[in-house]
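Q: What residues go here?
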């Protein structure tokens, strides 16, 4: 039996999870859970990373207090793109901006300077306004003193690893979200940052998932009542860890959806797929374990549901998720739709009003009740999954027969069944704890207890249950799909 500690950060919460490997199976035990609350100051959204590091320390203390001083390693995964700048003294210059910060620079100005086609040809990354490349241009323009004083740039999981060990590196899977990585070369694409006047020195050496970065600093180990255990760079982009846990039978005929605040939908390739067609579909090539390619589309996911619920709470309407699902089921289907990736849905705020406005502008029935708004979201997500599935088939020249849904969002059985109905494909749901499982399994791989990526998937298959959803055959989805494409995607 061997144990490791995983920290898994999402956009709204984080957890410390003990992973135990015994008899070829991984078991999980949650030791600490905490909220991840961005802070708005002077019109900007920031990550409260010092508070989050405090929570990491609390997780390690609880691990020690629970009798698990014998853990073999620690690994951290978070979201992508965001970063901190570190000065020559090793101190953080400012709190990192949140990717939903309204002042993130528009991409168009960067396209004018660097060329849109040039950027995609070199990075193969989906164009999203909050990608690191555009955030850096924004800082260079609006806060040049920070760029000038910066000696190091650390993505969020690399920042936490630095706080734990004093060592700096850039883990591959998270670097691949920046739009500064050349996935063919497997290294930073400095031609883009050079053109923006960003000094190359701030970018750290890239390491692979499964690299032992260092050990807990002696003073930190003493404070946290823990030995100087190794800290491992896992697939530190949470989707990289989640995809490592997908129980593929055949990636060539299967897709995955890592389902949570975001829906990350794609497949795993041995090498990047970068051409005019993938650019036209705005698909992305991100890094995975063993430098595989996560060829995928970033889709706005359950953020739409979460933010709608927050708005209703602000209006003293405290609906549970079960209330929302039941109201949606009771509403008339196929009347209202949105493009989940409409830019207007990215910032926090009154989501139901924006959804109503979208339908009004699209000439569709405006959803009036809570149930109609929720149904509109679910239907639109499922139809966007169908669109991405068909795009993947066109680009890859293969027929997709199975969609694997993983992550916390699969607790929503209504969405899982809708995905099967809308796409006409079998849906295999599980594991729920995909990201934590992937994080933990990569740690065991780095320690030599699991052989490789195939071994990771075999262990995770043996450790978790899955549920299968089959299409209902409801032909109403076909007509709804044509309406959705025309009204919401302009296709």
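A:
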């Amino acid at each position: 039996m061997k144990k490791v500690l995983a920290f898994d950060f999402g956009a709204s919460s984080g957890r410390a999870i003990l992973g135990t490997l015994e008899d070829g199976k991984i078991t999980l035990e949650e030791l600490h859970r905490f909220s991840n609350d961005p802070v708005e100051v002077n019109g900007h959204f920031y990550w409260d990373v010092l508070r989050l590091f405090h929570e990491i320390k609390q997780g390690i203390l609880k691990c020690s207090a629970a009798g698990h001083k014998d853990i073999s390693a620690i690994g951290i995964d978070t979201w992508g793109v965001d970063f901190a700048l570190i000065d020559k003294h090793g101190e953080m210059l400012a709190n990192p901006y949140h990717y939903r910060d309204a002042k993130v620079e528009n991409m168009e100005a960067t396209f004018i300077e660097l060329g849109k086609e040039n950027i995609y040809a070199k990075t193969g990354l989906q164009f999203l306004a909050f990608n690191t490349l555009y955030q850096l241009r924004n800082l260079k323009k609006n806060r040049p003193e920070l760029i000038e004083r910066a000696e190091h740039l650390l993505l969020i999981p690399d920042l936490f690893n630095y706080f734990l060990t004093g060592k700096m590196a850039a883990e591959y899977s998270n670097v691949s979200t920046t739009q500064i990585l050349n996935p063919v070369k497997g290294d930073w694409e400095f031609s883009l940052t050079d053109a923006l006047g960003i000094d190359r020195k701030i970018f750290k050496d890239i390491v692979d998932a499964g690299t032992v970065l260092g050990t807990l600093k002696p003073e930190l180990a003493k404070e946290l009542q823990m030995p100087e255990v190794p800290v491992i760079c896992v697939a530190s982009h949470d989707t990289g860890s989640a995809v490592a846990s997908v129980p593929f039978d055949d990636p060539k005929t299967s897709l995955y959806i890592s389902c949570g605040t975001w829906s990350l939908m794609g497949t795993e390739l041995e090498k990047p797929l970068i051409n005019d067609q993938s650019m036209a579909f705005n698909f992305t090539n991100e890094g995975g374990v063993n430098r595989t390619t996560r060829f995928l589309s970033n889709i706005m996911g359950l953020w739409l549901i979460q933010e709608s619920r927050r708005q209703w709470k602000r209006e003293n309407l405290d609906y549970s998720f079960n209330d929302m699902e039941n109201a949606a089921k009771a509403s008339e289907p196929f009347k209202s739709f949105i493009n989940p990736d409409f830019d207007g849905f990215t910032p926090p705020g009154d989501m139901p009003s924006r959804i109503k406005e979208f339908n009004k502008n699209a000439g569709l029935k405006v959803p009036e009740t809570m149930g109609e708004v929720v149904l509109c979201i679910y239907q639109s997500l499922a139809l966007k999954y169908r669109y991405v599935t068909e795009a993947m088939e066109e680009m890859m020249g293969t027929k997709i027969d199975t969609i694997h849904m993983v992550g916390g969002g699969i607790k929503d059985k209504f969405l899982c069944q809708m995905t099967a109905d809308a796409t006409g494909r079998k849906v295999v749901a599980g594991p729920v704890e995909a990201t934590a499982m992937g994080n933990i399994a990569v740690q065991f791989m780095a320690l030599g207890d699991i052989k490789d990526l195939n071994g990771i998937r075999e262990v995770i298959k043996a450790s978790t249950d899955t549920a299968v959803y089959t299409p209902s055959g409801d032909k109403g989805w076909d007509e709804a799909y044509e309406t959705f494409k025309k009204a919401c995607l302009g296709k």
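A: Context that may help when evaluating the design: The CA atoms of residues 296 and 378 lie 20 Å apart. The first strand starts at residue 2 and ends at 9.
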